[in-house]
Automatic annotation (TrEMBL):
Comp. bias intervals (Acidic residues): 196-215
Protein name: W2 domain-containing protein
Location of the region described as Disordered in the Swiss-Prot/TrEMBL record: 152-215, 253-283
Biased amino acid composition, Basic residues: 179-192
Family under the similarity heading: Belongs to the eIF-2-beta/eIF-5 family.
Coiled coil: none
Length: 459
């Protein structure tokens, strides 16, 4: 279990500081071009800082100039390259100062807010609003991946109280109307009794006037009947409920809007994650290819030739190849690069003729010409023995195109262990010479005839 430390280096010695976080743990994995650093407890650290975990990983990548990868499901946090824990702790402290602590009071209890492409921190302790320096590359990532807008328990409680307050106000208004109704009923009965007494004492004329006044009072006085009181209470209660329903609709629309925004943000984040994974895979493939090229001179030479290199360039590059066997070993690399991966049906002899300029440039010296014959023996006798029957045809092309001298072909044929340095077994060497025998005998006969003709000319 990771030890717990105070948030912020300035508070490290305060044993009573109440804001804590787990101490960062990192582990270096892999080796060579695939080495990477796994921030083991990145999710726990981010939770203590109340920041999304991907913000921290991305910050490390921006500061170190390295590719990063964060898996939201498993919480795996990867930074390419080997980085020790102390360096990551220094970067984490920088992140805390820039994106967590209040710039005014230093309290880490802040909330990230975004307004018009600007990022600022709102402190829950002192209420200060701190503007974040927008020059850092992490800001672009934060703007594209804003933090979730979480409603605290206190805010939820206030909203609930507002709803309850609206209902209570409606009920209270209804109670007041009932009290007014009872009072008006009592006053109405008293006035009616007084009017009857005055009518009996003052006569019919006054009684008529009193009746007229009573009618006026009925017109201008609020209806105090039980039905009217219930109607008024219902109207007020309906108005209060309508206000609550309206508020509920607004909140529902806001919730739906947040849901859509979260879905869109999740889709964009998934697309970005897929793009980062694609780039990561490409980088891994490129690193793997580079490692293979470094370990395999044949692949490296084949790629060099494929880059439209001239015969002179190929000959110069061949001299830089560092393999066992000297000239023979280097020529073996050239022959495998040129003729070792031919498609089925394509003859080696035809390709040798097509690559004449390259072979002449690489084998201008006698030792290099002999090395070509040994390389051919290795190629057709050991590397691709299925093509061993093509030995004679290839030797014929080398002779006809003046790539290798006739005497060297005969000398190679007679030295049966010439390719021993390349690991060619005696059986394979014998099989190659068996196929080459008719051509060599033909060359020897032709040489004898030429010598005979020369003798006749001298006589």
């Amino acid at each position: 279990m990771a030890s717990v430390i105070n948030i912020g280096a300035d508070n490290a010695s305060d044993q009573f500081y109440r804001y804590k976080m787990p101490k960062l743990q990192a582990r270096i994995e892999g080796r060579g071009n695939g080495i990477k650093t796994n921030v083991v407890n990145n999710v726990e650290v981010a939770k203590a800082l109340e920041r999304p975990p991907d913000y921290l990983v991305k910050f490390y990548g921006c500061e170190l100039g390295a590719q990063t990868k964060y898996d939201k499901k498993s919480g795996t946090s990867i930074v390419n390259g080997a980085h020790d824990t102390s360096k990551l702790c220094e970067l984490l402290e920088t992140f805390i100062k820039k994106y967590v602590q209040c710039y005014s009071c230093g309290n880490p209890e802040t909330v990230v807010k975004i307004r018009k492409d600007n990022i600022f921190l709102k402190c829950k302790a002192c209420g200060a609003v701190s503007d974040v320096d927008m020059r850092h590359r992490l800001n672009t990532y934060i703007l594209k991946n804003p933090p979730e807008d979480k409603i605290s328990k206190a805010e939820k409680k206030v909203k609930k109280q507002e709803k309850e307050k609206g209902i209570s106000a409606a009920i209270e208004s209804n109670d007041k109307d009932d009290k007014k109704k009872k009072k008006k009923d009592k006053d109405g009965k008293k006035k009616k009794k007084d009017g009857d007494e005055e009518g009996s004492n003052e006569g019919s004329a006054d009684a008529d006037d009193e009746d007229g006044d009573g009618e006026d009072e009925v017109v201008w006085m609020t209806d105090t009947s039980e039905e009217a009181a219930k109607a008024r209470a219902q109207e007020q209660l309906t108005a209060a409920m309508a206000s609550i329903v309206t508020q509920g609709n607004i909140e529902a629309e806001a919730a739906e809007r947040r849901k859509r925004e979260e879905k869109r943000a999740a889709e964009e984040a998934a697309a970005r994650q897929a793009e980062e994974e694609r780039k990561y895979a490409e980088e891994e493939a490129a690193a793997k290819e580079a490692a293979e090229l470094a370990a395999n001179p044949v692949l490296r030479m084949r790629k060099f030739i494929a880059g439209a290199a001239s015969p002179a360039d190929v000959a110069a590059e061949l001299k830089t190849v560092d393999v066992q066997g000297g000239h023979i070993g280097r020529m073996r690399v050239l022959y495998e690069a040129l003729f070792g991966d031919l498609e089925e049906g394509v003859k080696v002899a035809g390709q040798v003729k097509a690559r004449k300029d390259t072979l002449v440039a690489a084998g201008s010296e006698t030792a290099m010409q002999l090395a070509q014959l040994v390389a051919l023996e290795y190629l057709l006798g050991t590397a691709i023995p299925a093509r061993i029957k093509e030995v004679a045809m290839v030797l014929k092309v080398l002779y006809d195109e003046d790539i290798v001298e006739e005497a060297l072909i005969v000398g190679w044929y007679q030295k049966t262990d010439a390719a021993k340095v390349l690991g060619v077994e005696p059986e394979a060497a014998a099989a190659v010479r068996s196929v080459a025998k008719p051509l060599v005998e033909w060359l020897q006969e032709a040489e004898s005839e030429d010598e005979s003709d020369d003798d006749d000319d001298e006589e």
